[in-house]
Amino acid sequence: MKALNNYISKVPKVFTSKMANNGKYAAIDQGIISLSNFLASVLLARLVSPTELGVYVLGFLAIYFIRSVQDGLIIQPLNTFGAISTPGEFKGYFSAAAIQQLILAALSSFIALMVGWILTSLGNDTVGPTIFTLWFCFFTWQLQEFFRRTFYTRGEVQKAVILSGVSNIIRLAIILLPGIHQEITGRTGLNAIGWGALAATIIGLWMAKKYFTREIPNLRTTWMKNWRFGRWILGASMADWAVLHLYPIIMAGMVSFAAAGAYQALQNLVAPVHVLLRATDTFATPLAAKAYHQSGFPKLNRILLLIYLVAGVPIIGLLILNMIFAPQLLELLKGDTYLPYANGIFAMVIFYFFLYINWPLQIAFRAIRQGKHIFIANLLAIVSMFSVGIWFIHKWELYGAIAGQALNALIISVVLLIAWRKLKTASSTASQPASK
Description:
Elements: H1 2-14, H2 18-47, H3 50-83, H4 87-121, H5 127-153, H6 157-180, H7 186-207, H8 219-254, H9 257-270, H10 273-295, H11 297-334, H12 345-367, H13 371-396, H14 398-431
């Protein structure tokens, strides 16, 4: 109890330190992103059919898949190694990582282009054109995200806010302007993401010019360094994507694209939770990595507890409000089209509660370069998804998909809590002096 009071007494200092200044920018940054995602979804829900909204949702989830690959191969190594590098070391590492990021963006863009073209040529007039559209998003969005996360790593979060603001203003304008004349589809929303990201990439390239150098380390050496650290993170990120985002895709195949649109409508009600979760992930990962590098496990554990305390109140409050006012919020934001699905909010709230439980733990495991635990937890959840989860969807369709996600989040939370407890015990034992 004394230790808990000590942690609580430190919470006010979080809002007055230098770290807090960057934390506020991080909250603003993620707020812009989450609000823009929310507004784009609301606009599309009112301007297109549920099927076209489902097309947008599936394309958006494909972008998230590419983000999971980028996260493991580029971003998380950048967060960890970049946070503990000297300015001179960082320039060389950043320049090598930028080349690798460009290759990854070009490769994923080419794959989307070819797969979309092949499917469209074979007569698939829904999935084919959607994947073809994604080639542009895959390329520009990854480059924008690379620069945005670089600024987090070096403590220049205000620059990340500029990138997010520019990209999302352009994105919403592209959706809204043709929407006035009702000339809009789900692919319009995907193209809007790509054009906004292109503008942000150009600005990010200019703002990050001081990090580039001609003295680039051996690319193979840098790649192997990233791979040794990032391979488990890559597996964990892809598994995490599957656990979080594959359910709507499976549901679209088993039920309909319209069901995926209904899922998105319900998820939008709890979308503000991502303001804190994503901001915490982006901001706290390099901070936690640096703390662990400098002071070891005890300081990292304090940061983890502070994350739970600071983020917990608004997240839990928001989830409770959604449970009470879900029908009214759905009607206000989406009209009466999705009102029959309002009861699904109860399963969605449970899903997001367990997501709040395991999200900070994933940050901590990445900070100590223990991505294996995240991978194993998500792998167990995937096994559940392709067994119990598919049965849930077959039995209850939309509600079954959300219940399956809640079960996945519970499994991940339990596995990570057990693993973290074991690490704490092992660390405590190792730090005790040997008995004479």
